[in-house]
Amino acid sequence: MYNTQRLTLYKDVHERLNFLCKDLIEVKEVSMDDLYTDYYVSFLHRTVKDFLMTKDMHQLLLQRATQDRTTGWNAYRSLCNTALPTAKSLPLLRGIGESSNSLFSPVDEFLFYAHEVEVEQKYTDTELLDQLDQVISSFASKADVDYQMNDHWTNARKYSRGTHLHTKTLQMDQNTFLGLAIQFGLNLYVKKKLEDNHNLLRTKRGRPYLDYAFRPNIKIPNSLPHLLEVIDIELVRTLLDKGADPNQKIPICDNISVWGIFLSYMIEMNDQSDSNTKDIWFQAAEIMIRKGADRKLRLRCKIESRPTAIIGRPNLKLLCPKPGIGDLAVSF
To answer: So what's the pLDDT on residue 305?
Structure first.
């Protein structure tokens, strides 16, 4: 869609929203040097949002939305259905290059909605997700002179989150759409893709998919809840059940195994994490061990704050016997 068409569409939508929803929502303009992200729809005032979020209004809106339908209506599923036309309207006619911000904001919103559909309705629209990938892959194939996309379009993303082990070499242009789906916790989608193609785990270059599940490293829009702070145990279980190897070594991470990097990550992030997060860590660790993770692993780690680091539960502990550089031992 060209800029002239976009401006015409904006004016038309602006007039329709003012006519139908005046005093409730409004179109706002921000200067982002990008016509796609220059405009957004917002509530006229916070009190409007608070009013619409009350229980009575929620029930009324839900009733009106479902009264002519034979099946249950879900807001997140409806939002997912806007993904393809939104992606097709992105200003990416010459490739994704400098437009990566415009690209990933709607993609991230769609993946968030897809995650909520999985949680609420136990359903994934695999075909719609695949089509989204195909549409943006088509844009990426038209890369401009300043940006050559030799690998998957997800590699255009700026990875700025996280400070833990090996973050500088985490990606190395080996990302895929399935890896992005894993980081958004799309368990049903991932399970379906792995069932349809048993070679996906084996042929993945760079980081193994299991490592994405343990250490997501993407920055999502501030307007979305942070889904990525806690490991999805069911997703880890799915990957392991489908053949992911916890002892697989990662060449771009000094040939340390997925299991070893996860253990180092737990030690490094121990002081910054609450008890609920740690409990999930150890649930994941137990699953990994039962799936063949090396119980005799010895890994060099750096502990500066205390002479002995012991974290865990009665049946699983990680031990670093002395400060400084020491051996990380697993007790299970």
So the answer is: 44
